[in-house]
Amino acid sequence: xxxxxxxxxxxxxxxxxxxxxxxxxxxxxxxxxxxxxxxxxxxxxxxxxxxxxxxxxxxxxxxxxxxxxxxxxxxxxxxxxxxxxxxxxxxxxxxxxxxxxxxxxxxxxxxxxxxxxxxxxxxxxxxxxxxxxxxxxxxxxxxxxxxxxxxxxxxxxxxxxxxxxxxxxxxxxxxxxxxxxxxxxxxxxxxxxxxxxxxxxxxxxxxxxxxxxxxxxxxxxxxxxxxxxxxxxxxxxxxxx
Length: 241
Known about the structure:
By secondary structure, the chain is an alpha/beta fold. The chain has helices spanning about 20-25, 45-55, 65-70, 105-115, 135-140, 155-160, 220-235; strands at about 10-15, 30-35, 60-65, 80-85, 95-100, 120-125, 150, 165-170, 175, 185-190, 210.
C-alpha cells in the first residue's frame, strides 16, 4: 500500500521499529495491514518471526526503503507495521484517566506503565494529544497494542459510565499523602495536564491524593507520577494477576 505521512483524521497509523511492530503482531495481529522491512535490516531471527506471523495471518510483507524516508529519519528504525486504528470501549475495572494530556511521549510512557502494572484501560478527556500518533505508539514501546483507550467528551460522561469506580484525583488541593491510604478497586487514577495539573473542581470528587517529594524539585513529571501511583495501586501483586 502507498505510505504517506501520518494524519490524525485517517484510519491508519504506524508502529515504527522492530520491537514496537512485533508487539502489534503478537498482541493484535488483526489490526496489522502490512509490514514493511528496510532493505538493510539484517536480524534474521526477527525477520523469520515477522514472516511466520504474517504468513499465518495473511499480512503482506514488503521490503523497500522509501517508506522509512517518509515516516522515520531514525537510523535504527528497520521495521514499520501499518496498523488500523482500533475503536475500543473501556471495560469495567481499574482505569487510568488522563485529563487534557498534551505530550505524545508522556502518553506513550503511561501506556507502557499501565501495561506493566496490569491496568489495561485508559480514559482520555480532551483536548488531548493523539493516542494514535506514531510518536505515542513508539514511546509506548508497543504497549499501545496491549491497552484499551477510549476518548470521552468530558469527565462527567466517564463518571456516568463507571459509577462503581472509586475516584482518586492526583493533585495538591485537599489531598492526602499516597502513603496514608490504600487504593481500593475498582479504581480510577486521575491525572491532569503536564503544565497545569487537574482543575480545582477535582478536589471535590473522590479522594484526592498527592505524591510527596523533597523541595529539591518543584514537581514530578506526569509519567513518573502515574507510574508511582500505578505501583502503589498494584500493591503486593505488583500488577501481576
